[in-house]
Design goal:
Helices cover 41% and strands 0% of the residues. By secondary structure, it is an all-alpha fold. Helix 3 crosses helix 4. It starts with a helix and ends in a 36-residue tail after the last helix.
């Protein structure tokens, strides 16, 4: 609200005209009773409502649940805000294959990955600087500042 509008409101209506009218934006499409029911549904868990592959509430699942139970359409971002309002947070399910063999994964990491990765560069060839990758030891002897690069014992 601009200062000119505030001054006009103050002149016309005094302090009451400047009082807060509550939060702006659209109203919640679910009544307080329906919000309580939704919180109960969320506490039952996803498996109770047909999502048995993992036990996480994603915002997309909550939006679908609201549509199924209350016949009200919510966007994914709207479902996220509603979940936060109810004290829940949407989760992102881990994408793992059901047939994953943990022993085979561990064996591959120990044998194959070590071979693929390789030993890496030697410690003296590395640098902490992203802009100057060279080492001061590699500086020519007659270069300016060459004496400053000597190591202390």
């Amino acid at each position: 609200m601009s200062a000119a509008v505030q001054i006009t409101l103050w002149r016309d209506g005094g302090r009451e005209a400047l009082a807060s009218r509550g939060p702006s934006g659209s109203r919640c499409r679910l009544s307080p009773r329906r919000l309580e029911k939704l919180a109960g549904y969320l506490e039952q868990g996803p498996a109770a409502h047909g999502w048995v592959e993992d036990q996480v509430w994603t915002a997309a699942r909550v939006a679908t649940l609201i549509g199924r139970k209350f016949h009200v359409s919510y966007s994914v971002s709207g479902a996220t805000r509603l979940m936060h309002r109810l004290g829940f947070s949407p989760q992102v399910p881990a994408r793992r294959v059901a047939e994953r063999d943990e022993q085979a994964v561990t064996a591959w990491k120990e044998a194959t990955w070590a071979e693929v990765k390789g030993p890496g560069p030697p410690a003296e060839a590395t640098s902490a600087s992203r802009t100057k990758p060279g080492s001061p030891d590699g500086r020519p002897k007659d270069a300016p500042g060459a004496g400053a690069a000597t190591r202390r014992s």
